[in-house]
Amino acid sequence: MNATTAPRPAAALSPARALATAARVLRQLRHDPRTIALMIVVPCLMLVLLRYVFDSGPHTVDTLGASLLGIFPLITMFLVASIATLRERTSGTLERLLALPLGKADLIAGYALAFGAFAILQSVLATGLSVWLLGLDVMGSPWLLLLVALLDALLGTALGLFVSAFAASEFQAVQFMPAVIFPQLLLCGLFTPRSTMHPVLRAISDVLPMSYAVDAMTQLLHHRDPTTAFARDALIVTGCALLVLALGAATLRRRTP
């Protein structure tokens, strides 16, 4: 008679399990029209509002529009990912999933894929609206503009997944915005060039990923071909997103013994 074998632990990452998790999250989001509107419609409305607020200053629209095209997706995906993941934690869904042979990397990859699908749609719509309908004038390729917007949205998703581990309610998740997003917004170079900041503030801005998101958009605004600085900025944003996703996997744990 064979002894009863213990369940085998899940592998570090299984594409099949990650895709199954992503499909489940997408099915849930499909029944939440307010969340879909926040991810898809709100960034586009903000860009339209920006265009007509600065209607008399087209240069201002180009400068701010390129930067905000990267910032808006980051902020909205941060909000949606943090709140949606927190619901999974507080409803007990993560408790049940972690009791299955499902690796933490599978869960994080699944969430990232699900929100990444919306990030792609959001970035395509926002970039297309800005360039072809609102007349955003950038020297670089619109495809590179789309790439940076997508990387920023994925960074926002990663940050949202990470901070959801430290909130006990949706209200607390929203409260993380002043701590995580607002300092980056003030120091990213949107309101004043980072080179003119106090050395201490400049040093802080150098370690904040949103600074490189804005820098990448600025490179596309002024250069027709990709520059070394653009490649560096894009790689830094990508690396930050992957690092935060890894930290998010480390925070996934059962809340009950």
Give a short overview.
It comes from Streptomyces murinus. With 257 residues, the chain is mainly α. It is built from eleven helices and no strands.
Question: In words, what does this structure look like?
Answer:
With 257 residues, the protein is mainly α. It has a domain at 15-177 and 242-251. It is 74% helix and 0% strand. The protein has helices at 15-30, 33-53, 58-90, 93-98, 104-133, 142-163, 170-180, 182-187, 199-205, 209-222, 228-251. The chain starts with 14 loop residues before the first helix and ends in a 6-residue tail after the last helix. Residues 1-11 have low confidence and may be disordered.
Q: List low-pLDDT spans.
A: 1-11
Largest sheet: none
Question: What's the end-to-end separation, in Å?
Answer: 32 Å
Overall geometry comes to globular
Helical content class: over 70%
Q: What's the total count of β strands?
A: 0
* Number of separate helices: 11
Instruction: Round the Cα radius of gyration to an integer and report it.
Output: 20 Å
Along the chain, the helix and strand elements come as HHHHHHHHHHH
What's the rounded overall pLDDT mean?
Answer: 81
Transmembrane segments: 36-54, 66-86, 107-131, 143-166, 173-192, 234-252
Organism: Streptomyces murinus
GO molecular function, one term: ABC-type transporter activity
Family: Belongs to the ABC-2 integral membrane protein family.
